[in-house]
Amino acid sequence: MEPPLVVDHVSKYFGGLEVLADVNMKVGAGERRVLIGPNGAGKTTLFNVITGFLKPNSGSIRFFGKDVTTLSAHRRATMGMRRTFQITNLFSHLSIKENLLLSLKAVDTANFFSLKPLRGDKRLSSSAEILVKQCELWEKRDVMVRELAYGEQRQVEILMALAQKPTLLLLDEFSSGLSAAEIVTVSALLKTLPKDITVIMIEHDMDVAFELGQVFSVLYMGSVFAEGNAKEIKGNHNVQEIYLGEAL
Q1: Could you give the count of Cα atoms lying within 13 Å of 89 in the half-sphere of its Cβ?
Q2: Nearest-10 crossing angle of helices 96-106, 122-132
C-alpha cells in the first residue's frame, strides 16, 4: 500500500531565492511526523507546497499514490488532506457549534445544497456535539468564537479539521501563542486523534515536539538535514549545532 505522503525531489524558488532544495520525505500511515528547524528553514513553505497553496518549481507530491503536484488546495482537501495555520482561521461571529456545523456541512455532499437551517439538521447537530465533547469546550459550545481564549480557538480549529474526516492532517505551529496550560490542553486533544489519521506538524517548542512526535525531519536552509526518532535527533551533534546549543 502506498504511504499517505511522498515528497519527491521538491524544490521551490521565489525569484532567485531557493527556499526548498531537493526535499525528499516519505510519511507512513498513522505516523506522527514533526518538522523542526530554525526560522527560515522552509518548513511553512513545504507545508504550502504539500497542501497545494504553492506549486513547486520541480519535483512531485504523491498522496496515497496519486500525483497531486498540479492539483489545487481545494482538490487536495476533498481527497482528505487538511491543515491548520499559524494564525487561527475561524468564523469569529459564530459560536463553536456553528463553526463545527459549517465544517460538517462542507463535506456533507448529499445535502450540500439543502436550504435547511444548520441548527435544524439533527444529524449534523449530533455530529457537532460529538466533536465538541472531545475537548473541554462542551459548556461553551454556544459561545461566540471571538469570546474564547486563544487556546480554545486553537482547539476549535483542530475540531473543524477533524469534522471533515481527514486522512492526512497538517498542523502549523499549533502551540504558537499558547500559555503553558493551553499547550497541555491542546496536546491532550491531539493525543486522542484516531491512529488512522496521519499527522504532520511544524513545531518550535521542542518539549511539545518530542512529546507528540514519532519521527522527526530537521529542515535547514531548505533541505532535510536529518531524520530519525527522538533519541536519534537528540543525539545528533550536527542538529545541536544548528540549534546553537538549545536543549533538545
Answers
A1: 10
A2: 120
pTM of the prediction? 0.86
Within 91-179, residue ranges assigned H as helices are 96-106, 122-132, 150-163
Which set of grid coordinates corresponds to residue 61? 507530491
Nearest to 95 by CA among 127, 44, 138, 51: 138
Concatenated DSSP letters of 181-227: HHHHHHHHHHHTS-TTSEEEEE-S-HHHHHHH-SEEEEEETTEEEEE
State pLDDT tens for residues 168-191: 999 998 888 888 988 998 898 899
Distances (CA, A) of 110 to 30, 114, 130, 164, 166: 28, 9, 20, 14, 18
Nearest CA among 1, 230, 198 for reference residue 80: 198
Q: What is the mean pLDDT of the chain?
A: 88
Q: b/e for 78-107, b at 16 or more Cβ within 10 A?
A: eebbbbbeeebebeeebbbbbbbbbbbbee
Mean pLDDT confidence for 199-208 = 94
- Give yes or no for a contact between 4 and 30, defined as CB atoms under 8 angstroms apart: no
Q: Which residues contact 237 (CB under 8 A, 6 or more apart)?
A: none
- What is the identity of the amino acid at 132? V
Amino acid in position 1: M
| DSSP string of 7-37, one letter each residue | EEEEEEEETTEEEEEEEEEEE-TT-EEEEE-
Grid coordinates representing 169 are 492532517
C-alpha cell at 65: 499514490
What b/e readout covers 168-202, taking b as 16+ CB neighbours within 10 angstroms?
bbbbbbbbeebeeebbebbbebbeebeeebbbbbb
